[in-house]
Amino acid sequence: MKIVFRFLMVSIMIVAFGKVTHAQGEAAVPFLELAPDSRAGAMGESGAGLADNSAAVFWNPAGLAFQNGSDVSITHSNWLPTFHLDLFYEYLTYKQYVDDIGGTVSASITYMNFGTFARTGPDSPDIIATFHSFDAALTLGYATKISPDWGLGFNFRIIHSQLSDQPTGQEQGSGVATTISFDVATMWRPAKLVIPLVDEDIGGLLSVGLNISNIGPKIYYIDKAQADPIPTNFRLGFAYKVIDSDFNNLTFTLDFSKLMVSTDTNKTKEWYQSIITSWGEKPFSEEMRMVNTSMGLEYLYGTPGDFVFALRAGFFYEDPDYGNRKFVTFGAGIKYDIYNFDFSYITTDVFKGFENHPLNNTLRFSISIGWGQNITTNKGFPRGV
User: Fold this and answer.
1) Does 172 have pLDDT greater than 70?
2) Count: domains in the chain
């Protein structure tokens, strides 16, 4: 299908030329991999260990178990501005602690706009009609504590991809596909953790999160024989408060992530087999090269519940043979009362040969409103209710 070909070209651009030299496996609907919010986006796109706002729906839904109150947030980004295309995405999140069920419920909507395309006939370049192409996902989640230090989170997601509105000529399939997926996550935030030998308690300062996202069946636009896996992803994250005082706070984050998609190019494996074998199809050293590393720093000045100013920076690295994305991120934010504004910026100019990378000069903007949150101190990570 000509429509599918166009989609594949757009998909390649979405992941910013993340096409691998040694095939890592093809995954459809790559918009599900995009870091959605400005805060974590400014910290090298790392957030699985931090996950202390409504964007935890993406990074680690278990982080919602340690939050209280309500929060709504929206993010906008013009994607791959270097190409001057009509590519943009929107990300809307909402979370609410519900005392009756002892946990936090959440929802998010992700929308990726590919723009308007022209449909031509099978034997003629003449334009028959135009159509709008987009991907979208609706996510519903629940998180709760299983102990004071441990949280669990679950998401259910409906994914809809519209590459075309109808087939052309003798093409099979409508160019529209829908599937589902779910996420399973956990988080450990110890209230007390004494380091041996130095006898120092770092309880409340360390957070560790694990999230396996987009577990689900393959998606297809033509027939099941040509189905592609969705981007199931393994993410392990750490966050540590280096400075934790009444007015000054500095947090370090570190994430490791790996796409759990089989390299089986014949597409003979079921989706669950692909996930299981995605860790053992290559030698261990090669598997580790497929792991992306991202890290960031966040400095906060101010008093929670009043005024807080934030500065952020980060770094993202992907092996040259398995995607070759490498960029530095910066960002800032202001919080006043219940209102929060953040932005982030990606640059690749600092690396030789990456000056014209498609991700260069990418901006994200986020606005959030949080209310009913019981914030009484800066000390440590939020403990929820």
Assistant:
1) no
2) 1
CB distance 142 to 106 below 8 Å: yes
CB of 355 closer than 8 Å to CB of 349 = yes
Tokens (6 digits) for 53: 């706002």
Q: What confidence score (pLDDT) does residue 274 get?
A: 73
pTM, entire model: 0.87
Domain membership of residue 154 (yes or no) is yes
* Structural domain harbouring 55: 2-371
Query: What three-state secondary structure class fits 41?
Result: helix
74 C-beta neighbours (distance < 10 Å), count? 16
| Residues 6 or more apart whose Cβ sits within 8 Å of residue 366 | 37, 38, 39, 73, 74, 75, 76, 340, 341, 342, 343
Pairwise CA distance, residues 48 & 46, whole Å:
6
Amino acid making up residue 329: T
What average pLDDT is seen over the chain?
A: 84
The answer to the question of residue 384 being in a domain is no
Answer for the pair 27, 184: CB distance below 8 angstroms, yes or no. no
Q: What is the CATH number of the domain that holds 115?
A: 2.40.160.40
Q: For 235-252, give the DSSP string.
A: EEEEEEEEEE-SSEEEEE
Cα separation, 318 vs 327, whole angstroms = 9
Q: What is the 3-state secondary structure (H, E, C) of 193-234?
A: CEECCCCEECCCCEEEEEEEEEECCCECCCCHHHCECCCCEE
Which of 114-128, 200-214, 370-384 has the largest mean confidence?
200-214
In degrees to the nearest 10, what's the CA dihedral of 332, 152, 27, 291?
A: 70
Residue 15: predicted pLDDT = 44
